[in-house]
Amino acid sequence: ELSGTRYAVYTLTVEPDLWPMKRDRNLRIFQGQTVPQIVKTLLGEYQVNIEDRLTGSYRTWEYCVQYQESSFAFISRLMELEGIAYHFKHEADKH
């Protein structure tokens, strides 16, 4: 308070749509799917829209386990194993 005037401090955090995926922890099994299929399934659960530009073919995993890791860490690990990169596209009307 300064000279009878009150001030408030606010904090604003801006995060990508997939940020909530960093806060969960799951145990699940995916069978007979490719990494892109698994990634799309998980992103769909969080209603994250993606622009799919994949052109290669990817192996089908007989058995793939997410064990006590966040969905973000899980899909990041899988994409790294398959050599898939991603980036965030910033647009004026989609923040």
From TrEMBL:
Coiled coil: none annotated. It comes from Pluralibacter gergoviae (Enterobacter gergoviae). This is Type IV secretion protein Rhs. Transmembrane segments: none annotated.
